[in-house]
């Protein structure tokens, strides 16, 4: 059967969904959705209200950041008990809860049985994918790049080129450090830098011009060997094992692999395009800083430009990414002040193993994507940067790459919605890491977060078929694993993920982003800011940021005009997305507001006439 992609622009042509695709159906009652609408629309409006909104933003940020217990963790993946070493060895993941009982772990069903819960069902030889009503593919693109920025599980390659993981170990610095762009070590960063004292080149990352636009240089030479100038950089994870067709096919694939800082940054064209935009923004900022500080050397310009881009990225994490995840468009903002620095959750960052497991959102990746003239399944576009550069692809135009990413709909984060090949294999990895690191049952994490603890499978999902499947696989609701529960749990159409997933994501995302050293009390302030970020840089990071704005100033349209207004959509949220019943809720709230005003005026007139 011919591959077809789901494009937002197809709606203008009246085209139906491709074969096998269905829309997500929210099983919540109209009353439950209405009451939630009233609650969150009121909150959202208050957040936009001067003075009141500022205090509410702090209140809700504190609430989201204090789910569970605050760092430092009492346990890590180093040992099953607490010791000085387990509390201080950051080469192991931290953990929210102590290790699960060995007896419980030993009685878990085989992973090959559990993975069927994640796999898309097949109907007439076609995988059935459920579409997300809200998200474009920019959302999973940002999510993948974000986790690769601070989740870094230790691995080595076996003789066949497959990665073998040490699931409990990490090479992460435990900070959002843009590792895909800058690398994880100082030697890696040095090889990615231009390191030039020439005017106009100070502080910049290496790049090359392709199709009259700025891209990263290539990692391999014409013979398929890593260039000497990049011999400290990580090679693309799984590249050798995933390319079929022998040595010639592998050499051809290597021709467009970029010299990036992360081992997974070349995995898909989406991630490569986003990392390229960040490279351009770094070099643009370096140019502004050098121009404003001509006496500064290359080293200082680079470090200050890096500081600026990291803060811009942190703001995107909260103000664009997290705001997309939250229900009903609640607008969180980043405003580092004493309220944050003195908060009980404001502690040194330490990445948890629970976070490393839960961030495997394979269900939101559609079965196919269109790049240029052709459509590809998941395996077809892995490690394929040629789709960004070729004549049949995006022809080296970064705006067109982003327009294309945002023209695709993501699929829904739920059970039975992972592509049946490569993506389900990644779900298997989540289960392997979860079991190796002895994560406790899903119900115990619900209790830890203070959410409703499921007493039956019906408390996890309203889907009766899935209830029966979970019962058949696990027997008792108390046996459902952490990762399985997060994906199987029902969620509203507004939330795009289960309540426990959303709570965990918000908790660790706020903690990781807002507790970043660059946002700390003695760094991010009016006195230290101009030295840490430069005057021009501090002014830049104080402005509101968006991915669309960054793309606009670092790219051009097909006709060559640069910096002009974008002609396509660049957003994580489908522009036509509307919360079900929202118009009814809005009208009712307006009617209530008008009624309150009328009653208040009437009461005032009555009092005046009485006097």
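-> sequence recovered:
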């Amino acid at each position: 059967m011919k591959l077809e992609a789901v494009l937002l622009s197809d709606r203008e042509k009246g085209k139906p969904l491709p074969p096998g695709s269905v829309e997500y159906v929210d099983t919540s009652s109209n009353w439950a959705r209405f009451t939630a609408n009233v609650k969150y629309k009121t909150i959202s409006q208050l957040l936009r209200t001067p003075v009141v909104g500022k205090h509410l933003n702090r209140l809700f940020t504190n609430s989201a950041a204090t789910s569970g217990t605050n760092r430092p963790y009492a346990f890590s993946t180093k040992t099953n008990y607490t010791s000085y070493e387990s509390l201080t060895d950051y080469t192991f993941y931290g953990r929210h809860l102590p290790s699960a009982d060995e007896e419980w772990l030993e009685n878990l069903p085989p992973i090959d049985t559990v993975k069927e819960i994640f796999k898309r069902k097949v109907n007439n030889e076609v995988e059935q994918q459920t579409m997300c009503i809200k998200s474009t593919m920019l959302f999973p693109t940002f999510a993948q790049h974000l986790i690769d920025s601070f989740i870094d599980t230790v691995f080595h390659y076996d003789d066949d080129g497959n990665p073998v993981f040490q699931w409990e170990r990490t090479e992460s610095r435990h900070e959002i450090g843009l590792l895909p762009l800058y690398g994880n070590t100082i030697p890696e960063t040095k090889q990615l830098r231009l390191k030039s004292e020439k005017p106009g080149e100070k502080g910049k990352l290496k790049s090359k011009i392709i199709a009259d636009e700025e891209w990263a240089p290539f990692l391999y030479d014409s013979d398929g060997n890593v260039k000497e100038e990049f011999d400290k950089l990580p090679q693309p994870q799984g590249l050798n094992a995933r390319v079929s067709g022998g040595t010639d096919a592998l050499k051809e694939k290597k021709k467009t692999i970029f010299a990036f800082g992360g081992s997974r940054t070349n995995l898909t064209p989406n991630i490569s395009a986003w990392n390229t935009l960040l490279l351009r923004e770094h070099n643009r900022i370096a140019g502004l800083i050098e121009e404003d500080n001509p006496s500064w050397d290359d080293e200082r310009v680079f470090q200050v430009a890096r500081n600026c881009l990291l803060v811009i990225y942190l703001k995107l994490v909260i103000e664009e990414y997290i705001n997309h995840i939250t229900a009903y468009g609640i607008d969180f903002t980043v405003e580092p002040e004493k309220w944050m620095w003195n908060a009980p959750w404001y502690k040194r960052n330490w990445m948890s193993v629970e976070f490393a497991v839960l961030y495997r959102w394979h269900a939101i990746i559609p079965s196919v994507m269109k790049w240029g003239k052709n459509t590809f399944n998941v395996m077809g576009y892995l490690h394929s940067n040629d789709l960004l550069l070729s004549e049949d692809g995006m022809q080296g135009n970064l705006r067109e790459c982003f327009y294309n990413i945002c023209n695709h709909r993501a699929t829904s984060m739920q059970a039975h919605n992972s592509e049946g090949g490569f993506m389900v294999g990644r779900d298997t990895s989540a289960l392997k890491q979860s079991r190796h690191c002895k994560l406790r049952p899903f119900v115990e994490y619900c209790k830890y977060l203070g959410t409703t603890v499921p007493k039956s499978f019906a408390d996890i999902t309203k889907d009766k078929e899935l209830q029966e499947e979970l019962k058949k696989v696990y027997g008792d609701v108390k046996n459902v694993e952490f990762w399985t529960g997060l994906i199987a749990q029902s969620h509203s159409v507004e939330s795009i993920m289960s309540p426990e997933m959303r709570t965990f994501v918000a908790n660790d995302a706020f903690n990781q982003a807002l507790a970043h050293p660059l946002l700390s009390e003695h760094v991010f302030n009016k006195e230290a800011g101009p030295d840490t970020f430069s005057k021009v840089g501090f002014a830049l990071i104080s402005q509101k940021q968006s991915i669309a704005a960054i793309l606009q100033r670092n790219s051009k349209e097909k006709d060559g005009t640069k910096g002009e207004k974008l002609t396509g959509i660049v957003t994580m949220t489908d522009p036509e997305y509307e919360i079900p019943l929202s118009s009814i809720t809005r009208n009712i709230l307006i009617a209530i507001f008008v009624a309150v005003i009328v009653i208040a005026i009437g009461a005032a007139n009555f009092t005046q006439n009485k006097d």
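The chain has one domain: 8-553.
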